[in-house]
Amino acid sequence: MTSFADRHIGITTEARERMLAALGLSPVGSAEDPTAEEPIEALMRQAVPASIFTGPATSAGAPQSSIPAAASEAEALAELRALAHRNTVNRPMIGLGYYGTLTPSVIQRNVLENPSWYTAYTPYQPEISQGRLEALINFQTIVADLTGLSTANASMLDESTAVAEGMLLARRASKSKSNVFVVDADALPQTKALLRTRADAVGIELVERDLAGGEQLPDELFGVLVQYPGASGRVWDPRAVIDAAHLAKGIVVTAADLLALTLLRSPGSLGADVSVGTTQRFGVPMGFGGPHAGYMAVRAGLERQLPGRLVGVSVDAVGYPAYRLSLQTREQHIRREKATSNICTAQVLLAVMASMYAVYHGPDGLRAIAAEVAGKAAVLRDWLVEAGAEVVHDAFFDTITVRVPGAAETVVTNAHADGILLRLVDADTVGISVDETTTFTDLHRVAVLFGGKQERVFGFFGSGSAGALPEALLREDEYLTHPVFHAHRSETAMMRYLKQLADRDYALDRGMIPLGSCTMKLNAATEMAAITWPEFAQLHPFAPAEDVEGSLAMIDQLEAWLAEVTGYDAVSLQPNAGSQGELAGLLAIRGYHLANGDTHRDVCLIPSSAHGTNAASAVLAGMKVVVVATDELGNVDLDDLRAKIAQHSDALSALMITYPSTHGVYEQQVVDITSAVHDAGGQVYVDGANLNALLGYARFGDLGGDVSHLNLHKTFAIPHGGGGPGIGPVAAKAHLAPYLPGHPQAQKSEHAGGYVFDGGPVSGAPYGSAGVLPISWAYVRMMGAEGLRSATAAAVLSANYIAHRLRDHYPVLYTGENDRVAHECILDLRPLKEATGITVDDVAKRLIDYGFHAPTMSFPVAGTLMVEPTESEDLAEVDRFIDAMIRIKAEADAVAAGTWPADDNPLVNAPHTAASLIAGEWQHAYSREVAAYPVHALVAAKYWPPVRRIDQAYGDRNLVCACPPIEAFA
């Protein structure tokens, strides 16, 4: 029977032999070398340095693996079912930013479970991303409208990290010289904990105040956080606090519930500068903590301070409106250590779901849902008061705080026994939250717990009530007035809208996305199956441990497996993006040095070729960045490294390196590099972005790494989802384990291996985006240790095959010893531009006409393409890409030869839309056939981009980041 690994890896045995032969590697037992080892192993020995090379787990003397032998797809699903059955889905009434919600089936089936949406990548090639960009601009419009602020970004990682980013934005934008940030005493507890982690690293002083209770602000401050409504449920008018903060030159950040804002006055109308929060309750399951799309919106004048992605409107080559990512010059991948945020990914897939929830329901539907929630909360309040309970706050939206002196734990325990999860605030206080899924039967059961009537007749309940909201804070202005929020009420219309958007995009379901450093591998259907199972999807992240035994067991297994394959001792799955994993790892190093009394160690060495997030993360961890040069081969310059170590030896905290390097080669002297840092008292952070080139053949811990983050959305098959979700677990050696991120609301303190993590949290939920962890669990379980190793070899083989076949047409910029690359290769297009005038942009856009997503452009070297095929692509697709690149080189040569004018040829005019071929007279120097069908195979399956090449500069000069009027598309 065919194994899962055989289904996942696209290269067949026959294809592998052909590719190896092209690389000059003969089959075993050939006449040339009858004693030769397997040629794929010979390739890996040529590429991976002998000093770190690891044999297969099945080899003699190999330690027993904790990873079981590969399971079939049916067996893996059966094991996941067994784990799921160990979870108990009770009625969630804990609140704290996580709520039951009803995902419309049309959205679950056509977005969350649709590979056209979940296998797409960040829209850096906007011409082939117009569908998801439109969905994101809908998202931005929703957030801007509901918050009453001018500009919203395309999502944040979660609410708590969004608050932290709001705090940092306030520090940048405030004209106050104070170092004080005031935190609302009624803020979410997980947010307070995360703020302490982030503030401590960068020297911000947090001051807590009971703002609703009238506590005065400090005389000096740079910012204030207001929770609206509060964690206790309290709704109050913050205008006096906002005015006082502004008088002190502070920036006001509100953490606001978007569903409540359909009824409540917007933060913008109250005078707030920034609003942050989550869109989880807009149809996105709780998923034991994530992934969910956080949000951030700002008033006019703060747009360039926004972290994360920002979608804007520009025009294409013929003036047609087109969407693209705006103001990219402010982002970490460009600004590096000067970046204002280290966030690299967003939560696009979840933002799309939330935006479509609002599109489907429209403003009236959202208002009705909110009114029903508020009304039910008010009914519960009445029943509780009738029972003699003391309800603490008179004004609330969906959450009630009840005082029961000395009996709170008993009430919560009894509720749990009855299948209801309430919040234990303290020994005397219980919190109860109502959501979209709460029924009157649930309300009655809760009231009975507090001594209410055992029997009750439920009458008619209208949804027009404002519940217990104060009249002075009721919203009066309109929102979501754009036609898109009124046009798709029927399921038929919604289904067609989602299909129309998906058809405008290019994702893995259309063809290869050969993005270097991004690892766009297959997200197999069996891996995806469990994420919508209620036992995983409908768990509250703060549910009692006995309710989530299955998820905790799965997390323990995955932590152990990841520790083994990386050579580390402990793993935290909490970071919900690679950038947050970087930050967590550096904070662990910082904590280790502080614990040892080395308070002066704050210098982080980073190679000039590193990912932009590395430098940004180091700054956010309170470190000073010192750049290390790279040599002409793309390796870390050892002489410069030793000089920088000597210069900063007393202050050296860490070295951050990526292995294999960002240049796509295995550095031969990596052990010398890590040893030099350790000898100077520093720690080594190995960026795990390129682990797909190493898994099974070497381990970060063995080559000298002390800590690493891993990208589960790359090496371990979690989908990129159009730019998120991402998960960036952090793995460390035992001496750093105590400083990995913990969480005050975690269900248990111990992790796999018996380690306890005492570092501060870096995500809102204890296990981060736990809702998609079944994907990586299933990937490892079905691949097994040998399958993971085979995947690495297949990825490296494909990259070397591409480099070999294209090197006569495009120089391969960097290779390691034996002239081999790792899992990706960098093609140098600068000679092409010099010889023909054709740029890297022209080649990237022309690839669209050939039916491809372009490789990574101009990273890490300007004017280059970094190509990574991954192990998932078969030889036919790899050859199709190679042939397209060869033909494009010939087209460029034709321009240089004068066959086509420099300003009118198929490259500079690419991509070509269907409309451009049929509108008016064809007046170009090349034919329609050359434009549309450069190879005959495209006739049968052509992807048509919806817009021509987009004018990026125009969009930055004319910033529009909300839904444009329909007339713009006339």
From TrEMBL:
<dbReference type="Pfam" id="PF02347">
    <property type="entry name" value="GDC-P"/>
</dbReference>
<dbReference type="InterPro" id="IPR049315">
    <property type="entry name" value="GDC-P_N"/>
</dbReference>
<feature type="domain" description="Glycine cleavage system P-protein N-terminal">
    <location>
        <begin position="6"/>
        <end position="447"/>
    </location>
</feature>
<comment type="subunit">
    <text>The glycine cleavage system is composed of four proteins: P, T, L and H.</text>
</comment>
<dbReference type="GO" id="GO:0004375">
    <property type="term" value="F:glycine dehydrogenase (decarboxylating) activity"/>
</dbReference>
<dbReference type="InterPro" id="IPR015422">
    <property type="entry name" value="PyrdxlP-dep_Trfase_small"/>
</dbReference>
<dbReference type="InterPro" id="IPR049316">
    <property type="entry name" value="GDC-P_C"/>
</dbReference>
<comment type="function">
    <text>The glycine cleavage system catalyzes the degradation of glycine. The P protein binds the alpha-amino group of glycine through its pyridoxal phosphate cofactor; CO(2) is released and the remaining methylamine moiety is then transferred to the lipoamide cofactor of the H protein.</text>
</comment>
<dbReference type="Pfam" id="PF21478">
    <property type="entry name" value="GcvP2_C"/>
</dbReference>
<feature type="domain" description="Glycine cleavage system P-protein N-terminal">
    <location>
        <begin position="485"/>
        <end position="742"/>
    </location>
</feature>
<keyword id="KW-0560">Oxidoreductase</keyword>
<comment type="similarity">
    <text>Belongs to the GcvP family.</text>
</comment>
<keyword id="KW-0663">Pyridoxal phosphate</keyword>
<dbReference type="InterPro" id="IPR015421">
    <property type="entry name" value="PyrdxlP-dep_Trfase_major"/>
</dbReference>
<feature type="modified residue" description="N6-(pyridoxal phosphate)lysine">
    <location>
        <position position="714"/>
    </location>
</feature>
<feature type="domain" description="Glycine dehydrogenase C-terminal">
    <location>
        <begin position="791"/>
        <end position="912"/>
    </location>
</feature>
<protein>
    <recommendedName>
        <fullName>Glycine dehydrogenase (decarboxylating)</fullName>
        <ecNumber>1.4.4.2</ecNumber>
    </recommendedName>
</protein>
<dbReference type="InterPro" id="IPR003437">
    <property type="entry name" value="GcvP"/>
</dbReference>
<dbReference type="InterPro" id="IPR015424">
    <property type="entry name" value="PyrdxlP-dep_Trfase"/>
</dbReference>
<dbReference type="InterPro" id="IPR020581">
    <property type="entry name" value="GDC_P"/>
</dbReference>
